Amino acid sequence: MKRPISDFAPADANLTPRFADVATFMRSKPLPIDKVGEIDVGIVGVPFDLGTLYRVGSRHGPISIREQSRPIKPVNFHTKVAPYEIARIADLGDAPVHPLSIDLSFETITSWFNQIKYHGVRPLVLGGDHTLSLPVLRGLARDGAVGLIQFDAHSDTSDETRGMKISHGTPFRRAIEEGLLDPKRIVQIGLRGNAITVDDNAWAREVGITSITMDDFEERGRAAVIESARAVVGNLPTYATFDIDGLDAVYCPGTGVPEPGGFTMRDALVILRSLQGIDVIGADVVEVCPPLDVADATARNAAYLAFEMLCLLASSSQASR
User: What is the pLDDT of residues 84-126, one digit of tens each?
Assistant: First the structure.
């Protein structure tokens, strides 16, 4: 028998100041991984950035996002979802990584998420660069391909980068090849920027991925894009991933490859709120690079996006019980 949900209530700001104590996400209760079976939703940092091609430092993202989550209040003003009242939520700390080896890091990250999957827990992942979505999916989707809602300036479906098959530009191509993602249930929102070739995203289209560029977004409007995203993933298990560079560069100075002309924070928040009811089995916020940040703006925005994802995960967990 699991403990009551109330046992996992976050720290009360009326009793402990928001600036006090060691930072966990939204001041959730810390919990060791060997107790993961006690909860419904687990927050996990993945301090990994060995797949980064340009400006490094997103290994420091998890701790920065946790710090900037301190002032977030526990009830979603817009959707009325109170995640800590409908699900057992705890911060599981960081998945172990190797600071010099992608292969060894992938082994330990995948093992960590195998445990989370085994206990039926839905993770909220704080990154780290976008490469980490691959070992997370290896843990969560080992029973069969899932859908994906991807917010990103870049498709991340390249075959290789400078001869390397694993980087933050390739995770979703590898995940499709490994049978972790169903390409016909993938929707990418926010693609833009310059390209390496005339048609960088040809492979993604060929395998059936729905790619919505920022030009499409502007032409069709937010409501139509939300409707399309929901139609693509349907009612089956779906993973959500938000590369912070999906935001316009003014909202995320602290990221490896900022791209102008992206989402406003308002757009991003509304879209995430509109995904209520989808079976979200896990989610990540990635590519926050604190050494490049300005007044913690990027990490703060990431924390608020992560809260919206936490609401989705808690609602999905409640619906599955």
Answer: 999 999 999 999 999 999 999 999 999 999 999 999 999 999 9
- pLDDT tens-digit series, residues 206-216: 999 999 999 99
Q: How far apart are CA 81 and CA 113, in angstroms?
A: 26
- Strand order of the β-sheet with 280-286 is 29-30, 89-94, 41-46, 122-127, 280-286, 238-243, 146-151, 181-191, 210-213
pTM over 0.85: yes
What CA dihedral angle connects 152, 194, 299 and 134, to 10 degrees? 50
What residues contact residue 24 under an 8 Å CB cut-off, 6+ apart? 30, 43, 66, 91
| 210 membership: H or E segment, kind and range | strand 210-213
Q: Is 89:317 a contact under the CB 8 Å cutoff?
A: no
Both tokens of 71, joined, read 């002032």
Q: Is 292:219 a contact under the CB 8 Å cutoff?
A: no
Task: Report phi then psi at 199, rounded to 5.
Answer: -140, 80
Please report the domains of the chain, with CATH numbers, ordered by start residue. 5-320 (3.40.800.10)
Residue type, 139: G
